[in-house]
Amino acid sequence: MPEFLICPARYDDLAEVQTLYKHLSPSSPELSTEAANHVWWELLADPKMHVLVAEQDGVWGTVTLVVMPNLTQGGRPHALSENVVTHSEKRGEGIGR
User: C-alpha distances in angstroms, 37 versus 3, 18, 31, 69?
Assistant: First the structure.
């Protein structure tokens, strides 16, 4: 099974992440370049947001984690995962694990 590097997304990953999102939600309207750049910068700058990518000669998967404060579980924060997607050409290769 091929190995993928899981790492924080970088600004330069935007185009590949947008391609992945087309696999997740093909009917979603596309953002203008300006709007996409603005949202991407905002996501990457927010310390409570963590966009991770799976790389292997390109970006093949992604997940966004939102870490939130929590008044239960002894005050330990918890996270929500959103926009979890693997490129259709790489599904079944273990990226999601």
Answer: 29, 11, 9, 27
pTM here?
A: 0.88
Kindly state the tokens that stand for 31: 């953002």
Let me know: does 5 contact 57? Beta carbons within 8 Å: no
CATH assignment of 5-90, among 3.40.50.200, 3.30.230.10, 3.40.50.1820, 3.40.630.30: 3.40.630.30
Torsion angle of alpha carbons 31, 32, 33, 37, nearest 10°?
-50
One-letter amino acid at 57 equals: D
pLDDT, one tens digit per residue, over 21-35 is 998 999 999 899 999
**How much is the mean pLDDT over the chain?**
92
Angle subtended at Cα 65 by Cα 17 and Cα 97, rounded to the nearest 5 degrees: 75
Report the Cα–Cα distance between both ends of the chain, in Å, rounded: 12
